[in-house]
Amino acid sequence: MLFGMRVTLQHLISTGLLALAVLALQMLVGKRVIRFKGRTHQKVHRRLAYALTALAVAHGFLALVVAYQWTIGG
Ligand code: HEM
Fold first, then answer.
1. Which atom of ligand 1 is nearest to the CA of 43?
2. What residues make up the domain containing 19?
3. How far apart are CA 37 and CA 55, in angstroms?
C-alpha cells in the first residue's frame, strides 16, 4: 500500500514495459538510428537517460512494495 493505493502487478508491468520502451528509444538515439540536429541530439539522449533512471527506480521501488507488502503513508 502506497498512500492508501494498492500497488498491483499491473503497476509493475506497466512501469517495466515503459522503461523497456524508453531503453529501446535510448539505444536508437545512442546509435544515431534516430538523429537530432546539433546539440539537440545530446540533450535528448541526456533527458531520456534521466527519464529512464527515474522509471527504473520507480519500477524497482514498486516491486519492493509488492514483494514485501510494505505499507507507506497509511
Ligand atoms: C545502445 C545504447 C547506447 C548507445 C549506443 C549510446 C551512445 C552514446 C554516445 C555515442 C554518447 C556520446 C554523446 C552523444 O553522442 O550524444 C553517449 C552519451 C551519453 N549516454 Fe548513451 N548510449 C546508449 C545508451 C545509454 C543509456 C541506456 C543511458 C542511460 C540511461 C545513456 C546515457 C548517456 C549519457 C548521460 C550520456 C552523456 C550525454 C551528455 O552529457 O550530453 N546512454 N551515449
1. 41
2. 9-67
3. 26
